[in-house]
Design a protein that fits this description.
Blueprint: E1 3-12, E2 22-30, E3 41-46, E4 52-56, E5 62-69, E6 71-78, E7 85-91, E8 96-98, E9 101-102, E10 113-116, E11 128-132, H1 134-139, E12 157-159, E13 181-183, E14 192-195, E15 198-199, E16 201-202, E17 207-208, E18 217-225, E19 238-243, E20 251-260, E21 277-289, E22 296-315, H2 320-323, E23 341-342, E24 347-348, H3 364-373, E25 389-409, E26 415-429, E27 438-456, E28 459-476, H4 484-488
Parallel strand pairs: 2-8, 2-9, 7-10, 14-19
Antiparallel strand pairs: 1-28, 2-5, 3-4, 3-6, 6-7, 11-18, 12-13, 14-15, 16-17, 18-19, 20-21, 21-22, 22-25, 23-24, 25-26, 26-27, 27-28
Length: 500
């Protein structure tokens, strides 16, 4: 069941704020008397890639720099006759902040004043939001390393339920890919997901399409209310994720997180013997400059997840006597539904003689199904009617995912980046009774190509192309194994064969 969504966006500087995966920096440059300085040069220098963007102030001393990737920067202002001034700041995803400069008259030594670590505030937006920063992504403990679990640290967000859990609807069967989040009191299907400025929302159940490894994510922002116009994708929370890019130095990581049943406590249902669990989550990431290509950087990662666990359930199955119509040992009275004697307030039905249903009254199809496809009790005496079967089967969840991103900075301040991410999800869930579990085989993909082009100091253009695809396949253990419809001789259902 594949689903696709494509987005193509072109915008000029006035509309560039819609690219919510970038930050926006602006401000004013003034002299010691507070008067604006026209023609001052403002330089924004990346501390990680050494790329720069330069602009000049207008007649009112104002500068405006939209479409800046999130990260650490040094912002410097200089004007003829004044001492230059620089400040180190960290820009976050979808942040819109003002940094003003008050330049002093230059001394003979042309002194440079450096201020670092100043607190900057977004004074232009009224949205209520929270940014999950890189140090939180790297350091907070997460069982399963699912990025959306970090959304629960945002005020107003809590776990939800329904189809978005990935296990509550056969049309959306993605175990381990939980998108059921209630943000700001909204339902889980009211959230909207962006990845590098491109839509990452499955349009059928409004869930996150691809969930990337924590190592591939730079930071993300969650807006809970009072959204700006560019975040009107849905009425619930807006989850805006930005992936990591390479830097001017090489960085890498290798990891393997292990869980094993021999190290865990035993639950009541496991009865001390069925706590089998083997789980490995492993992978690696590396990023840096591309050799022989100036100002071109790459980042790539891979993460694998392998999970096998024994699931234990206490269930009820019919005894062999009950399959043959004999309920004399079942502890319940069985009545003939064709009998009806008025008793004043209703009707009274007659109990089958000896609490045994005659063979000619039993559906042969139902009886054959119970005889051939349902297990017999394995707990208690043979006549125990309920909670008489202990079902112990292994569930499996496996996925492999990875990303590859390239960033190229041009000399005029242009930025071109491209990224592809893919995730394969396979598994088995031992739901229902033995023989009726389900397999899933899903493929999630997302790709982005973006170009920020500086046309002039006062005109910028951004073009973004995004593609998102989610393909899901779910089938029963009997698919391709048992032709139940044909073997039982069921007529009129409109389909049959081993795929039924």
């Amino acid at each position: 069941m594949p689903r696709y969504s494509f987005v193509l966006l072109f915008s000029l500087a006035a509309a560039a704020y819609g690219q919510s995966n970038f930050a926006h920096l602006h401000g004013i440059v003034r002299d010691p008397q507070g008067r604006p300085i026209a023609g001052a040069t403002v330089t924004i220098h990346s501390q990680t890639t050494a790329s720069e963007r330069t602009g000049v102030t207008n007649a009112q001393g104002l500068y405006d720099a939209p479409l800046i990737p999130a990260g650490a920067y040094t912002v410097a202002a200089a004007a003829r006759g004044f001492a230059s001034f620089q400040e180190k700041i960290t820009l976050e995803v979808d942040q819109n902040i003002a940094v003003d400069f008050d330049l002093q008259v230059a001394s003979l030594a042309q002194s440079v004043s450096v201020h670092a670590g100043s607190v900057v505030m977004d004074s232009t937006q009224t949205s209520v939001s929270e940014v999950i920063e890189p140090q939180d992504i790297a350091n907070l403990p997460l069982n399963g390393r699912m990025v959306l679990d970090l959304v629960l640290t945002v005020p107003g967000a809590h776990p939800g339920s329904g189809a978005q859990t990935g296990e509550a609807n056969p049309l959306y069967w993605r175990p381990g890919q939980d998108s059921a989040l209630s943000i700001g009191g909204a339902r889980p299907n009211a959230n909207f997901y962006l990845l590098d400025g491109a839509i990452n929302t499955d349009p059928t159940f409004w869930t996150q399409n691809i969930s990337l490894s924590l190592d591939a994510i730079q930071e993300f922002r969650v807006d809970t209310s009072s959204y700006t116009a560019n975040e009107g994708g849905a009425g619930g929370g807006q989850v805006n994720i930005v992936t990591r890019s390479g830097t001017s130095t090489f960085h890498g990581a290798v990891y393997d997180y292990v869980r094993n049943g021999s190290l865990d406590a035993t639950s009541f249902e496991q009865m001390g013997s069925n706590n089998y669990l083997v789980q490995n989550q492993f992978g690696g990431a590396v990023g840096g400059p591309l050799p022989h290509l100036r100002k071109t950087y790459f980042f790539t990662n891979y993460e694998g997840y392998r999970h096998t666990q024994a699931d234990t359930a206490i269930e009820t199955v019919p005894t062999l006597a009950e399959v043959n119509g004999d309920f004399s040992q079942s502890g319940v009275a069985v009545y003939d539904p064709t009998t009806s004697t008025p008793n004043g307030s209703g009707v009274t039905r007659s109990q089958f003689p000896g609490n045994v249903i005659p063979q000619n009254r039993i559906s042969s199809v139902a009886q054959q199904f119970m005889l051939h496809y349902l297990p017999r009790p394995n707990m208690g005496a043979g006549g125990v009617d309920s909670n008489n079967y202990m079902d112990v089967r292994n569930e499996e969840q496996n996925w492999s995912q990875g990303s590859l991103r390239f960033d190229h900075y041009l000399s005029n301040g242009d930025l071109i980046f491209a990224r592809y991410s893919g995730s394969s999800e396979t598994g088995f869930q031992p739901i229902n009774l033995p023989g009726f579990g389900v397999y899933n085989d899903n493929l999630s993909q997302q790709a982005v190509l973006s170009w920020n082009h500086v046309i002039s100091p006062s005109l910028l253009n951004t073009a973004t192309l995004g593609a998102s695809r989610l393909s899901m396949f779910l089938h029963s253990q009997n698919n391709g194994v048992n032709d139940i419809v044909g073997q039982l001789g069921i007529q009129g259902v409109g389909y049959g064969g081993q795929g039924a």
